[in-house]
Design brief:
It is built from ten helices and seven strands. It has 260 residues and is α+β, with helices and mostly antiparallel strands.
Amino acid sequence: MAEPIIIEGQRAWLKFYGESSRAFALGLLNFVAHRFHLHALRPPPHRGGAQAREIEARRLTELKAQGVHVPEVLGQSRTALVLEHTGVSFNTCLREADAAGRDRLVAAAIDAIAAAHREGAYLGQPVPRNMTWDEGRIGFIDFEEDPLEVMDLPQAQARDWLMFGYGVVKYYDDRPEVLKTMLADAMEDVERPVVDHAHQVTGRLQRLARLLQRAGKSGRALAHAILVVHSATSFVFVTLVLLSLDWLGDGELDLFDLLV
């Protein structure tokens, strides 16, 4: 949980780290990812309290050293960090933008993810709600989990593309070709192990996507995300089988909150 505060006239964020209560759910998600060989979708351990604070502080330091735009740590206690304000919500910007503005935002985000990867970084959860926008600069937030605890670097970078693709595809329901082109251009410079893993994961979701097309509005929307982004290039990016399982269980796509 984070709340805005003012320090010496400047906006900042006070982020608290409560105790984790997700052990059973994360264990189930981990089983599903193993069962279907979707290793880039394995959920990292979700710790709470001081452990979560320590992971986020460490990750922020690592990412800052790799040139990624992340918040400075302005202060800390045992279970809280005071973090720099790095811009407005990227999700809000996407919702409020027109088509041309949305394309500029998504292109900037793709460039920022690719630049981070070139420096050996991985982001973990680069979905729009965990990103910021400030005068043309993309920022990233929320690092209380570390994917490298359960996967290698190429898998973690593939996970970044999968998470980002899932997060933005809904803004391109009426213009899928535009998103395909941007993703295809990005893939030209992505290292082959990352591309291969993203392709493997999304390829295994194709049969599920075909089934979901006949499963109501929410299922069709998720299937559309899988199929549209898979067709962007032969090396795809999108979505989580875990979301599909959640939707099949109760008609809601709320399980994504466990990962982001």
